[in-house]
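Lecture 7 notes: from sequence to structure.
We start with the chain below.
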Amino acid sequence: MKSNVKVSHIARMRARALGVMGLGALPACKSSADTDGLVMVPMLETASSSSAIVADAGAEASVATRPTLEPRSPNGQNCTREVHCAAALPSIPTVPYAHPYEHCDPSPLGEPGKLSPRETNEHRVTEPDVCCYVSFEGCVGRGRRGGGGRVMIGRPLRDTRGEWVTAVTSFHEGWSEGSREALSGGHDERESQSAIWAANGAAEHASVAEFARLALSLLALGAPADLVRDVHRAALDEIAHARICFTMASRYAGRPVGPGRLAVERAGAGSASVAALVRDTLRDGCHGETAAALELRAMARLEADAQTAALIEQMADDEERHAELAWRILRFAMDLDPDATSVEIDRFVDDLERSPVADEIVRPCALSLVNRRCS
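Predicted structure tokens for the same chain:
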């Protein structure tokens, strides 16, 4: 599923990140905006590939390429693997895959999934000019449960292997409010929507625990009171988000839906390591919550029900503040241990997959903090 969000949202979040770190404005970034002022910003997908490389006559076009890794199911879940093949592009995208996949579309409009080198190679035995993409549907198991909707998550609770920890949802009271009257629609549609909202609720519910872990880490590292205070405020936001999601799940189900026991012992206590704090903050705060805020903005634009759209917009506002908090934590880490922080930033941006969020916010802002320290 593709989503559109205004370029102004990206520019604002970049400016806020720089502002809370005490950095000046960056030079104008090359925008991946379309002609209508919108940019494709799915949470973990790559930037739009609508532009082709144009080289001067006789000159070589030198461009960065995308990694050609075989897609894997999200967080090791059990999914149905769907394969779709399409004709290769007539021209090379702006940021292509490496040879021999340079004519494959990194973001195929209207088509699900990511490029599969394995499937492409197999199909090219009989169809030389084809590119094949893989998507994962009906995922259940570790990390999320329920239907095929997108989990609106910024800072997940992770176990020691980096996999998400969420509670199993079931029918019980405590996390939903308001009407118990089921929303209209067919049984299958309501069941699917209930599962999607319940999965989002479970993710937001687990984020409460992750912010508690973050508070312990900050306390162990001697963080100032304002950071610790705002981490606890963010946890309260996540409680509100979880209640919104479980309320929607309950309305679609026609009875209360809520989380069961959360296996926090799998996640362990917060780390007192600056390096660990920086890694987690970059991945799940600076990047994850920035992406979540933009994704929620896009979802609100597509939501037909005005009341639901307003709730999603409120969640987006909160995620923007959480992303801003992450950049403040990164600045604290740089002041505390500049060497360890700089090393972790360099490693992170080197491994960061290209996307509007990465290219126009996370990478330039993080590197600006390193450059400020070195200047």
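Points to note: The chain has eight helices and seven strands. The chain has two domains: 74-139, 150-374.
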